[in-house]
Amino acid sequence: MGFSMNSKPKIVTGDAGYVLEDVPHLTDYLPDLPTYPNPLQDNPSYSVVKQYFVNVDDTVAKQIVVHKNSPRGTHFRRAGPRQKVYFESDEVHACIVTCGSLCPGLNTVIREIVCGLYYMYDVHRVLGIEEIRRRGLKVAVAGIPKTIDNDIPVIDKSFGFDTAVEEAQRAINAAHVEAESIENGIGVVKLMGRHNGYIAMYATLASRDVDCCLIPESPFYLEGPGGLFEYIEKRLKENGHMVIVVAEGVGQEILSESMRTAHQQDASGNKFLQDVGLWLAQKIKEHFSKKQKMTINLKYIDPTYMIRAVPGNASDNVYCTLLAHSAIHGAMAGYTGFTVGPVNGRHAYIPFHNKVVITDRMWARLLSSTNQPSFLNPKDILRDEETQIQGVDGGSHARCENG
């Protein structure tokens, strides 16, 4: 009957701390469903591959770096074709729904779903969306993570991300050439990233021409000691030019308050974002105009539509094919309410309920690359110093944890 967001997560436990975050199955709602042989058994393209079908008990570990005495931890069902399916080819109506805006590789995903259904499972009817859950029909819901921002941390990466980073470098290179060609030149590049700065961070690391990268996960401030303006002045005196990369979700709390857009939403229902790039560029101009210490030449580049409209590169196209086929195999095998993606290099079926806290060492690598400060508020720095002093006075020592 399909997947409901009110469904409870399926957690299966085993020996030695083994936990399976399972995905719903059609037999949870329709226990008497018959099964059929997988049509791939008769497909000559797959008959040459030994053990092509995935065992129903195969799982993929969420964490592969563990302590020797650690429990086995959380696992997900491995993606791939099963020997038995729960749909007959001639009874299947496939529905494809795309949400949000463009993304490199999106057309590849759609094409491979259509072609995969046709050539692997002999499904000829692929339609638009219909009301089906209300009628209690046999429906499997499979999701493919479509977010160019790479903000689903349980999977290795989202499709289109590699292409986006590759294309973002072109904008950064252009900003660097512009900034370098004039005295006190500043290039500001705004990249995608509503809630995280993966594209900005990876493009910065790949470019090696960026002096400062601002992302939503790491707040910053403009004025005062340790602020952005102080760092810009320092870099211009040292280098004569500077490149700043900013993710679109940075500083939205400040902008929302000043422009009274805190509760506005866009057409997709997402929080309306002000253009932080234009705002930041204007603030930088105002600061140096008031101080009259030096004349700056600032160029602002927003490559958003150029990045998301380009075709997927080779690695993204191959990845999109695997995602589409994994989703097809899962739906035909009767699984529902899942998204598909690579976990530690192996494609798995992940429940829609899954939520993960992001921890990553890449930000430390970026700080090392750009040599920018952390932009922590002076009050936070003072509080941290007092905490460390109290720890020393009390005979204790601080503990450091890495993500």
UniProtKB/TrEMBL annotation:
Phosphofructokinase domain: residues covered: 130-329
Reaction(s) this enzyme catalyzes, per UniProt: beta-D-fructose 6-phosphate + ATP = beta-D-fructose 1,6-bisphosphate + ADP + H(+)
Alphabetically ordered keywords of this record: Allosteric enzyme, ATP-binding, Glycolysis, Kinase, Magnesium, Metal-binding, Nucleotide-binding, Transferase
Alphabetized InterPro entries for the sequence: PFKA (IPR050929), Phosphofructokinase_dom (IPR000023), PKF_sf (IPR035966), PyroP-dep_PFK_TP0108 (IPR012004)
GO molecular function: 6-phosphofructokinase activity; ATP binding; metal ion binding
Name under which the protein is recorded: 6-phosphofructokinase 4
